[in-house]
């Protein structure tokens, strides 16, 4: 990632990051947008009630404020989606699988192949539309929490089989 | 204890319900290679039932409740009639009540009978089988080599009947893999020895030299003087019933004195917090009473009493819970691993095989410092997460102990610290601050983020494990073998990026120990991240197996144990 400070831990040297599919951007835009819309709509109900004088006692600042904040938050979130997706990446190293994510709160995760308990490939309706899938790595630790979104569907099978095979070769277990 | 006795004796302690019933299959496994050393019948590879009163032991609360309500509804009248005051009227209400209770009782008997009848277990060649359920049947199989730990638990009621519950854990993230409740205590021990033996890779009667090895372990245990046993001591291994696999002999490493146990509970952090709240409330009431006097009954002290009561109750609860569970805490070693025995009313015996400990934490509360007391907790896959502060739970391997006790237990749960001067390094890790003994702490620039702990938050990576030090008021030292690291997370927020620091998380199985290195220098963190990722992957490649009893490791294990005993 050019232009970042050298103190960014996600700039691991000697790691050739594979970026996730850029199709994750529209997928995330849709899901984030929908979530924002729904929450805003729900929070706007009292506003409508106030405006049509069904609930005039409802404080105006709250009526405008709550949906407003959610809307602004959602819009900022949407604006950051492309950068956030670009910040994601994964790499298959010799002994482990590394994955990075997060724009402000950076996170790099290393999962040794030998620790893999199982792998999930998941696909939602929006993801299917864009031909991407997410890959979930499970170790014996619940803290691992490794879900890699935006793997191209055609790559996901290969990646899963490859990771599983390496896990087998490195003797999976506790 | 060492010589395998004749199996006939075990038949004596065997309850009658283990008679093969109609549903039992004929010996499902091939006969054993060595007919000379018979196996206990509980572990003979056939279907067995748990003890018939098991459901009652579990459901005794319902019985008590029924008795209570029955007494309430007509006991009063009855007593009055008995002492000659008033007439006892056998009103129709009584008969209806009696009929209802009788009906409930009959239903209970039927349900309990079928629940017992349909619960069967079998120790097969490679796995333990357990069938439960009447309508919704469940058939569970657990492979021996997946067993992470075996516990024998005796709740008070079970103890009265001489029964015990045998539990064992697999690495499935928390829930107990299998629970045989309830079987005769002696039988539970036979089964434990059998399961542990098979999990360790010793097949009954198959490898005499391995049985001999266990005998050698016994010699070690006998050569060492065992500390005197308290009168309230639970069953001794000497009383262990016969088995083709002799129950692994044990050496008692330490017992927590009752006085220290009580002291540690009273001086625990939870206790201090609650006592301070109570003191503050009393003070508040006193000040209010002085400044805003109220007249009559309705004064501040009365209000205080109502506010205070829940606190006092929880205080007593916590104290009692800690004492009840931690009472008579005994740590012993055996070739099967670490043995823990504890409990006042409900007793438990845990066996954690060597190499099943995922991470260790040594901690010290503020007031414990004056006495040099420490607590040790471990992550064992299968024990799962525990709620903090609930006294001695099954993840606590030492509820309270001196530094010598810590070193002893450490020699079992983390036998190879990977450094020459392990005691000094551990000591530095618990009490030290700064850069001593190879520890690397957070850089000075984060002093305002962690004003107290920036010199405490430190790590040291040895040949075999990573040591993580943290906490100023309450001190912590986490030890995690490289090969137990499941995955590693490197985290950095915007502020941390500004300060050129990062936080490292070492992911372990669920449990009380959460290995974390906060706010380390970014370069250091990245280097450690890469190093640990490499070591974690490679060290596992060298030593991965499901069965732990391998010659070289056992030798090292016993050697370490011996060293500690001689200290």
TrEMBL record, chain B:
<keyword id="KW-1133">Transmembrane helix</keyword>
<feature type="domain" description="YdbS-like PH">
    <location>
        <begin position="116"/>
        <end position="194"/>
    </location>
</feature>
<protein>
    <submittedName>
        <fullName>Membrane protein</fullName>
    </submittedName>
</protein>
<feature type="region of interest" description="Disordered">
    <location>
        <begin position="1"/>
        <end position="45"/>
    </location>
</feature>
<feature type="domain" description="YdbS-like PH">
    <location>
        <begin position="328"/>
        <end position="385"/>
    </location>
</feature>
<feature type="domain" description="YdbS-like PH">
    <location>
        <begin position="454"/>
        <end position="523"/>
    </location>
</feature>
<feature type="compositionally biased region" description="Polar residues">
    <location>
        <begin position="16"/>
        <end position="25"/>
    </location>
</feature>
<dbReference type="InterPro" id="IPR014529">
    <property type="entry name" value="UCP026631"/>
</dbReference>
<feature type="transmembrane region" description="Helical">
    <location>
        <begin position="94"/>
        <end position="114"/>
    </location>
</feature>
<feature type="transmembrane region" description="Helical">
    <location>
        <begin position="56"/>
        <end position="74"/>
    </location>
</feature>
<dbReference type="Pfam" id="PF03703">
    <property type="entry name" value="bPH_2"/>
</dbReference>
<keyword id="KW-0472">Membrane</keyword>
<feature type="region of interest" description="Disordered">
    <location>
        <begin position="216"/>
        <end position="243"/>
    </location>
</feature>
<dbReference type="InterPro" id="IPR005182">
    <property type="entry name" value="YdbS-like_PH"/>
</dbReference>
<keyword id="KW-0812">Transmembrane</keyword>
<feature type="transmembrane region" description="Helical">
    <location>
        <begin position="300"/>
        <end position="320"/>
    </location>
</feature>
<feature type="transmembrane region" description="Helical">
    <location>
        <begin position="265"/>
        <end position="288"/>
    </location>
</feature>
């Amino acid at each position: 990632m050019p232009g970042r400070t050298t103190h960014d831990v996600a700039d691991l040297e000697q790691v050739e990051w594979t970026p996730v599919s850029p199709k994750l951007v529209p997928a995330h835009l849709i899901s984030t947008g929908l979530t924002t819309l729904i929450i805003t709509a729900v929070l706007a109900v009292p506003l409508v009630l106030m405006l049509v004088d069904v609930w005039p006692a409802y404080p105006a600042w709250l009526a405008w404020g709550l949906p407003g904040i959610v809307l602004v938050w959602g819009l900022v979130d949407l604006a950051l989606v492309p950068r956030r997706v670009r910040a994601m990446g994964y790499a298959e190293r010799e002994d482990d699988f590394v994955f990075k994510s997060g724009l402000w709160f950076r996170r790099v995760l290393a999962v040794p192949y030998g620790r893999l308990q199982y792998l999930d490939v998941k696909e939602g309706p929006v993801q299917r539309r864009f031909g991407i899938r997410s890959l979930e790595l499970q170790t014996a630790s619940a803290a691992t929490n490794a879900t890699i979104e935006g793997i191209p569907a055609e790559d996901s099978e290969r990646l899963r089989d490859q990771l599983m095979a390496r896990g087998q070769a490195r003797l999976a277990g506790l | 204890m060492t010589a395998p006795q004749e199996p006939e004796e075990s038949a004596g302690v065997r309850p009658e319900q283990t008679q093969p019933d109609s549903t039992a299959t004929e010996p499902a496994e091939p006969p054993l290679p060595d007919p000379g050393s018979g196996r206990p019948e509980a572990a003979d590879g056939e279907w067995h039932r748990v003890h018939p009163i098991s459901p009652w032991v579990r459901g005794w609360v319902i019985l008590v409740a029924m008795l209570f309500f029955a007494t309430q509804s007509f006991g009063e009248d009855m007593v009055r009639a008995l002492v000659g005051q008033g007439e006892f009227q056998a009103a129709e209400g009584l008969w209806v009540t009696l009929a209802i209770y009788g009906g409930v009782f009959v239903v209970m008997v039927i349900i309990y009978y079928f629940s017992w009848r349909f619960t069967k277990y079998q120790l097969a060649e490679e796995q333990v089988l357990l069938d439960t359920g009447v309508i919704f049947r469940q058939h569970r199989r657990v492979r021996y080599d997946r067993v992470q730990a075996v516990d024998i638990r005796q709740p008070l009621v079970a103890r009265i009947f001489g029964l015990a519950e045998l539990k064992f854990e697999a690495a499935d993230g928390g829930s107990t893999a299998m629970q045989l409740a309830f079987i005769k205590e002696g039988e539970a021990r036979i089964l434990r020895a059998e399961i542990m033996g098979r999990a360790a890779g010793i097949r009954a009667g198959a490898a005499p030299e391995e049985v001999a090895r266990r005998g050698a372990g016994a010699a070690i245990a006998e050569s060492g003087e065992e500390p005197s046993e308290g009168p309230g001591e639970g069953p001794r291994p000497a009383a262990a019933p016969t088995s083709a696999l002799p129950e692994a002999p044990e050496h008692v490493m330490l017992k927590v004195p009752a006085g220290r146990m009580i002291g540690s509970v009273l001086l625990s952090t939870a206790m201090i917090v609650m006592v301070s709240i109570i003191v503050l409330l009393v003070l508040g009431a006193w000040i209010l009473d002085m400044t805003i006097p109220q007249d009559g009954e309705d004064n501040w002290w009365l209000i205080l009493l109502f506010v205070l009561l829940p606190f006092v109750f929880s205080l007593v609860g916590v104290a009692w819970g800690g004492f009840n569970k931690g009472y008579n805490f005994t740590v012993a070693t055996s070739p099967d691993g670490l043995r823990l025995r504890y409990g006042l009313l409900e007793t438990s015996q845990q066996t954690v095989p060597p190499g099943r400990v995922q991470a260790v934490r040594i901690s010290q509360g503020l007031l414990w410092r004056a006495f040099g007391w420490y607590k040790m907790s471990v992550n064992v896959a299968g024990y799962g997460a525990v709620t903090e502060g609930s006294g001695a739970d099954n993840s606590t391997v030492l509820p309270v102990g001196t530094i010598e006790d810590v070193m002893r237990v450490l020699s079992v749960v983390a036998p190879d610290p990977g450094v020459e001067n392990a005691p000094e390094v551990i000591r530095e890790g618990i009490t030290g601050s700064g850069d001593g003994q190879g520890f690397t702490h957070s850089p000075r620039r984060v002093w305002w983020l962690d004003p107290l702990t920036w010199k405490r938050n430190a790590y040291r990576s040895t040949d075999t494990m990573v040591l993580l030090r943290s906490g100023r008021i309450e001190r912590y030292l986490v030890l995690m073998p490289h090969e137990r690291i499941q995955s590693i997370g490197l985290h950095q927020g915007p502020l941390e990026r500004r300060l050129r620091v990062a936080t490292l998380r070492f992911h372990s199985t669920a449990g009380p120990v959460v290995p974390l290195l906060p706010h380390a220098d970014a370069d250091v963190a990245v280097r450690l991240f890469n190093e640990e990722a490499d070591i974690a992957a490679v060290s596992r490649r060298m030593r991965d197996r499901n069965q732990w009893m391998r010659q070289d490791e056992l030798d090292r294990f016993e050697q370490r144990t011996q060293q500690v005993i001689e200290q």
